[in-house]
Design a protein that fits this description.
13 helices; 2 domains; 5-stranded mixed beta sheet; disordered N terminus; alpha/beta; 5 strands; 326 residues; disordered C terminus
């Protein structure tokens, strides 16, 4: 009888272990699917909140940036979310450009539930909107800067504080160099802060659609000075840099409402934004050469949190390397 009791207890213990493993697996696999996203999160409730918010941002931000909703992608974008109260906020979105199409979406996000919903998610969704609209990589400042403008005011204020520090310590980036950047520099923090500030400056003076038209114009001809003249009446990059610096020194005041209202609609403006092509040939496994065009980004807040941990909570390091996933 003693052996029988021990065996029964052992059986109960094993059963509890299996139940625990099943629960853990279910928690890891908690998911939710929408028309354009497949979300994996710590719980079904979180997955649903993230998925619904992603669809709402995808619709609303596409309208704000391009003038109309983004068409449905032929394949949904997987979103993997790590959610914890004290987890650093950040994300990475990857996709492939190939012969005028964009596909193979993948997104990872992390942070507190609040920061994921009000900062990380709109930032990453804006990357997908720009990729679907432009169908080619953007200069890093224009891409990251614009995406940061849709984050929570707390995060945007943090970027402004860093910008002031960088300008005071000689870590600012000359505009001709910044406009030519297609990859992240070694000292990436100033690029984020300065890119956000310049994007905000331009958007306040012409709106988001004019900003999109300006970026498209600059990409088409690779003549950013000419694009600035056509869309903002600024003669060259040096003039823009000095005007922007004066604006920063004055505390970044908002322009008079009449200024933005008086700006005409961008020339040759087209609200068309294509979705992912349903052509099966465009979705085949890309070659190694085409995979090299994968665009991947990691929020600066993740890099900051990791450096702070390594330094035991001290000051931020001056160098960072963005993660590139293939």
């Amino acid at each position: 009888m003693l052996v029988g009791r021990v065996s029964f207890k052992h059986l109960v213990s094993l059963l509890l272990v299996f139940i625990g493993l099943a629960t853990t697996t279910a928690a890891r696999a908690a998911g939710y699917r929408t028309a354009n996203f497949v979300i994996e999160a710590p719980s079904d409730q979180l997955a649903r909140r993230i998925g619904d918010a992603a669809e709402q941002y995808r619709h609303d931000l596409a309208v704000e940036w391009t003038g109309q909703p983004l068409p449905r992608w032929s394949r949904p974008c997987p979103i993997t979310a790590q959610v914890a109260p004290n987890l650093g906020a950040g994300g990475a979105t990857s996709f492939v450009f190939d012969r005028g199409e964009v596909f193979n979406w993948t997104m990872t996000i992390q942070g507190s539930e609040e920061r994921i919903l009000d900062s990380v998610l709109p930032h990453e969704i804006t990357h997908t909107i720009f990729a679907s609209h432009f169908r080619q990589p953007l200069p890093r400042w224009a891409d990251e800067g614009a995406c940061t403008t849709v984050e929570h005011p707390v995060e945007r204020a943090r970027q402004h504080r860093m910008l002031i520090e960088f300008l005071r310590t000689g870590r600012g980036i000359a505009f001709p160099e910044m406009f030519a950047m297609r990859e992240y520099p070694t000292d990436v923090l100033p690029l984020y802060a300065q890119g956000y500030s310049l994007a905000r400056y331009l958007i306040e003076r012409g709106g988001r659609r004019r900003y999109v038209a300006f970026v498209g114009d600059g990409l088409d001809g690779n003549d950013w000075a000419a694009a600035l003249g056509r869309h903002y009446g600024v003669g060259d990059l040096a003039n823009l840099q000095q005007t922007w610096l004066d604006w920063v020194k004055k505390g970044c005041p908002a322009p008079p409402a009449a200024l933005a209202a008086a700006m005409p609609e961008p020339a040759n403006w087209s609200p068309t934004t294509r979705g992912q092509s349903p052509d099966p040939a465009a979705r085949r496994q890309p070659s190694r050469e085409r995979l090299a065009t994968t665009t991947s980004r990691q929020s600066i807040y993740v890099l900051q949190a990791r450096r702070t941990q390594r330094q035991g909570g001290g000051s931020l390091a001056t160098e960072a390397t963005p993660v590139t996933r293939r």
